[in-house]
Amino acid sequence: MSISTQTLTLPDPLPLDGGGELAPVEIAYQTYGELDRDGSNAILLCHALTGDQHVASPHPVTGKPGWWERMVGPGRPIDTDRFHVICPNVIGSCMGSTGPASESPDGEPYAMRFPVITIRDMVRAHIGLLDALGIGRLHAVVGGSMGGMQALSLAANWPERTGHVLAIATTSRHSAQNIAFHELGRQAIMADPRWNQGDYYGGHSPDSGLAVARMAAHITYLSEEALTAKFGRNLQDREVKTFGFDADFQVESYLRYQGSGFTQRFDANSYLYITRAMDYFDLAEEHGGVLANAFRDTSARFCLVSFDSDWLYPTGESRHVVHALNAAGAPVSFVELGAPHGHDSFLLDIPALDRVVRGFLDG
Amino acid sequence: MSISTQTLTLPDPLPLDGGGELAPVEIAYQTYGELDRDGSNAILLCHALTGDQHVASPHPVTGKPGWWERMVGPGRPIDTDRFHVICPNVIGSCMGSTGPASESPDGEPYAMRFPVITIRDMVRAHIGLLDALGIGRLHAVVGGSMGGMQALSLAANWPERTGHVLAIATTSRHSAQNIAFHELGRQAIMADPRWNQGDYYGGHSPDSGLAVARMAAHITYLSEEALTAKFGRNLQDREVKTFGFDADFQVESYLRYQGSGFTQRFDANSYLYITRAMDYFDLAEEHGGVLANAFRDTSARFCLVSFDSDWLYPTGESRHVVHALNAAGAPVSFVELGAPHGHDSFLLDIPALDRVVRGFLDG
């Protein structure tokens, strides 16, 4: 498949929901597959909180496979023999798009001078990218988790720009519990003295705090059932408890590994900004408090997918969106899939998800 | 009611599950109500992770009411006009019983030289206290959460010492998810440079890390429903989002308050040791891998109570204990109460719980 990594500078300053504008805005993005002659086969793929543009090709830092290789590629459910897939790194992130670690106009990194952004700001930047690429109307916008928020935001705010909207394991608003877990992560980062009010570029980054934040988030990505099946109370490389504070249990070892591995590839300030954007997300609030109003102007077809073991964005959140789409008269299909893995199911080997994705994009 | 605060030094060294022994062992405890002449009306009340002996009288540090004032007192469900209630501070804690902040035999605080203890070690210390007080057989042992673990451990390991066992919102073993949340808290504490490998007594304590640990735990104590009902997406003392990192949402403000308030009254090393004891808790493992074996020698009556919104120790955990008690032929009653508050329900105003407690202790 044709794979291309590029960075584009938006020609215009980006207006922000919080007021003011961001300029310059660079967007790092990856494309897979060829754009057809009439430009009608483009799919915008939106990544999750800690995701990036490396969907179906190795991650440049970790060398690991792309985060959705099983879904995106030749003959895969998002078939790059048929579709031109564009995956941009969201603004605020740290994989090439403009974010807190980027150089600000004064030559220093933004750090905490970076503006607080919203999910809609991220999508506004995506629209700027599509404009620059000459792509008018997408075949589809697709995303899971925070990617699903972007997909819904695009459908609500730029309804003419897509024919299909596929939103997986997501929500139209962050709940109090969602905000609580994110706030916990932010406080862990800010409690790390190395965070230094965000000014750590060129020095030691607040890896300890970021690792704790990642551990907290990771617990929410897995179901209790999945943790029990995967680890239970099994001990890690030992026969008996050590009566100490090493990682006696496999689940402890796993979490420590997840936490420390994450710090190699992610910027702590980006974690603050992106979690904030997610917590601010409330699609109904943006549309007069009535979620159905967000979808009044859409002509797209929608597909919502949830997982029965996802306690981060439980099925009720998807159903809430479906009811709003029904009220707006938009065509929508909805399926709750059985999968034991929790929220992370959307990234894992769930054949039923493959069938739903392939079928919906063909429709 | 007669209230008495005392500290007792156990006459003998305390053997520990991890090997070795602890000496001297001081137990700070509180009693409410009079012991009757034949010593048959004593109730041992076991506190939870961050609880203490101040059940029904003001906390000496915070000045707040005792943690179970609504349950314990004259005419209350645990009626101090009838019962002599003894509530000891667990070893490893920080309210007067021997723990990591205590002076070790060399005159310095134990800090991380304190031995890793188990729930059974805590109960062994309670038994030492009862022996010293001349109380042979309790009318009942009662506890919620970690207090319930102690109640079950006492019934399993000192079956002749109690006639009734009331275990509320608890479990016979910590699950992978339970361990994960505790490990997250421990890592938050240990990531705080002020923790300094546990040697912070006399200097600055690791309040930032401990506050993050408390925030994580606090989220698990409340149901998603309770968080939504209490806070939803309400903003804190403002009309609009600030597009900054202050506590915009009420739930953020609440968690920060819970975290920082906790550091005033709790020792970070105690948090490490007590969470470790809970994670190590597996009553079946102590008895050949068969939970029913833990209860073969008991002649006590049992009552298990769970709450339908408790996702920390869900009803299935109580049911698991009930099945083991059934298999052991022990008399047991079990009720799952409807309450929206999550795990913390056992501390809150649930009239049905009052009725269950009163009725069971009268039986």
DSSP summary: helix tally of chain A: 9
Order of strands in the sheet with the most strands of chain A? 1-4-8-5-9-10-11-12
Q: Rg of chain A, please?
A: 20 Å
Shape of chain A: globular
**Category from helices, strands and their pairing of chain A:** alpha/beta
Weakly predicted, low-confidence segments of chain A: none
CATH class assignment of the largest domain in chain A: Alpha Beta
> Based on the structure given, which CATH architecture of the largest domain in chain A is correct?
3-Layer(aba) Sandwich
Looking at CATH, the homologous superfamily of the largest domain in chain A is Alpha/Beta hydrolase fold, catalytic domain
Mean pLDDT of chain A: 97
Could you give the order of the helices and strands of chain A? EEEEEEEEHEHEHHHHHEHEH
Could you please say which CATH topology of the largest domain in chain A applies here? Answer: Rossmann fold
Strand content of chain A: 15-25%
Largest sheet of chain A: 8 strands, mixed
Largest interface: A-B, 55 and 55 residues
Estimate the helix proportion of chain A, in percent. 25-40%
Oligomer: homodimer
Per DSSP E runs of 2 or more residues, the count of β-strands of chain A stands at 12
Provide the number of structural domains of chain A.
2
End-to-end Cα distance of chain A:
23 Å
What does this structure look like?
Two copies of one chain form a homodimer. The mean pLDDT of chain A is 97. Chain A has 363 residues and is an alpha/beta fold. In chain A, β11, α8 and β12 (332-337) form a beta-alpha-beta unit. In chain A, the strands form three sheets. In chain A, strands 1-4-8-5-9-10-11-12 form an eight-stranded mixed beta sheet, with helices on both faces. In chain A, strands 2-3 form a two-stranded antiparallel sheet. Chain A has two domains: 3-174 and 280-362, Alpha/Beta hydrolase fold, catalytic domain (Rossmann fold), CATH 3.40.50.1820; 178-275, Orthogonal Bundle (Rna Polymerase Sigma Factor, Chain: A), CATH 1.10.1740. Chain A has nine helices and twelve strands. Chain A is globular and about 65 Å long. The longest helix of chain A is centred in the middle third of the chain and has 16 residues, at 176-191. At the A-B interface, α3, α4, α5, α6 and α7 of A face α3, α4, α5, α6 and α7 of B.
